Amino acid sequence: MKSKICVIGAGTAGIVSVLSVLNSAKRNNVDVQVTCMYDPNVPTIQVGESTSSPILNLLTELIGFRVLKDLESIDGTLKYGSKYVNWSEKDFFVHHQQPAIHLNSAKFSFWVLEKLLQKFPNTFTSIHDNVLSLDTIDDQAVVKGNNATYTYDYVIDCRGFPSKEELKSDIYQEPTFTSVNSVIIYPEFEKYNEMYTTAQAHENGWLFQIPLTFRKAFGYLYNNNVTSQDEAINGFKKIKPNVDINKTRKLSWTSFYRNTAVDGRIFYSGNKLFFFEPSQGFPLHYYAVFADYFVYCISTKCNIAQEVNYYYQDVLSDIQDVIAMTYQADVDFKSKFWKHANQQSYKRLINSKKFLSWCNDSNSTTHFASHSNEIMFSLVEGMNINLNKFRNT
Q1: Nearest alpha carbon to residue 263 among 305, 292, 315, 299
Q2: What is the pLDDT of residue 367?
Q3: What's the rounded Cα separation, in Å, for the pair 70 and 67?
Q4: Single pTM value for the model
Q5: DSSP structure string for 246-306
Q6: I want to staple 141 with a disulfide (CB 3.0 to 4.6 A). Which of 65, 155, 215, 253 is the partner?
Q7: Among residues 313, 204, 302, which one has the least CA distance to residue 258?
């Protein structure tokens, strides 16, 4: 029997979810009809994004993406790892076993949509409509739009950030540790020959650098409870004296996560699901992973909500531990931010049974989030993190 699945939203989260659903359905022999529903009048956030290797694999396997031929279509560049600057005495690289890409989110979404419509005319379609409400009624997911009411077996909701009312409800929680919660984004229209994402520590937080084909995105991250916007601007200018503040975007957020990923027939993903700091490409990677696991659970006819929610909560704990671990880095900053981040991240980690167990077992095969032991120890060694203070506790 064919499973009708609707993915709402055509941002990177929505498109990656569509790719993952189609790929997982093929691998697990699930007969699906997938619809992407989105409002074309809602603009896609134009920002450079760093991805993980499985995203490139999805593109290659499903739509025949070829790096030499297609990378420029999404303003993309190759990524072989990440460079860390100022996180310890020496800069270092974390290398990945397989290549990934940086992409322009606006170009990526609609380029992939067009390819999917061509490649899967019988199993994939798109609908233009503005979603007003979602609900689970009996054994169906009901989507009420401006133009019509639709029914599906399952819905994956990737419509962006939850409302303020939702965030204040018991559906969401704030993490135990919050590092940065604000960013100043600046596009520099120059070509950089860099096949890596850069994370540069500074006195007020860290700076991401994502190279695209004809521009590079710089994001000065800080915590607005510790550093004022004016202080952040001055700090940004210390790193990039030529930055034109009038051409920057300034954003702040409250870190959050949804208690459950699946509620009834609705699976929440994208920024509806969680938002911490933009660290190490975790979100986009796990939007794909969660959608893949969701379809796998459909194939096994298990309790989908129970299985997916358990896995989601386990992964979410891992992500928070890895982020916290990076703030144990041996940075050469004695600033208010780093004192705060170091103390609060330590409190997070000292109460994490999994992290403490991993620290006490040097031969552990435990993986944290998408990180193998090799990557974890590359971070520990490169950042000169003292694991001894977590051992035997």
Answers
A1: 305
A2: 76
A3: 5
A4: 0.94
A5: GG-EEEE---EEES-SEETTEEE-GGGTEE----TTHHHHHHHHHHHHHHHHHHHT--HHH
A6: 155
A7: 313
